Here is the input.
Amino acid sequence: MEFIAFIIAIAVSYQALKGYRLTNERTVLYLHLSFLLLGAGLAIDGLANLIVLLVRFHRAFLFLSSLGYSINFVAQLVAYGLLVFAYIQQTRTSVSQVAMAAMPALLFEHNPVTELILLFLLVYIATQTGINYSVNKSAISSFVFGAFVSLVIAHLFFLFFTFSAPVFFALAQIAQLFGFLLLLAMLLRVNHPL
Here is the structure.
């Protein structure tokens, strides 16, 4: 699922880059960079886990799983931080100090603290996209809002996974894929209007 999410994230990044070239809007540039980082993090984490699986969980290679997750977490932190920064720049609020305070992070595999940090960033982004949707009620803004709500749900499931059943990991992956697909659909609609 991480490789599928990687492909979708790269497609979102590509479409955002095309949109940026058309509009020169900085928010779309931040979206491009964010999803480029998300895709890279997912690819590295997926590759690390694939290597561990291929060597049948040999002890000498188990560290790769933690390393892959750590790189993926940092990529997500920076990616979502970029989006928060974009919305802060757009709304010009004093929330920037709060957002910057959330940047230091622990790099432990599926740690509740790391998931809470990502969740905090995503809730802020989802709130801003919800406000945007409530103002202009367009289909495009509904896709963006739905995508970030789906990503919030995904990270809630990742958080639940750290405490309990593995089924939450699968649910988190599905919610993340759905969020990425919504963003891709939005960008395809913007870049190729009917």
Observations:
- The first helix runs from residue 2 to 23.
- The two ends are 31 Å apart (CA to CA).
- The chain is about 85% helix and 0% strand.
- The helical segments are 2-23, 26-54, 63-91, 96-101, 112-136, 139-163, 167-191.
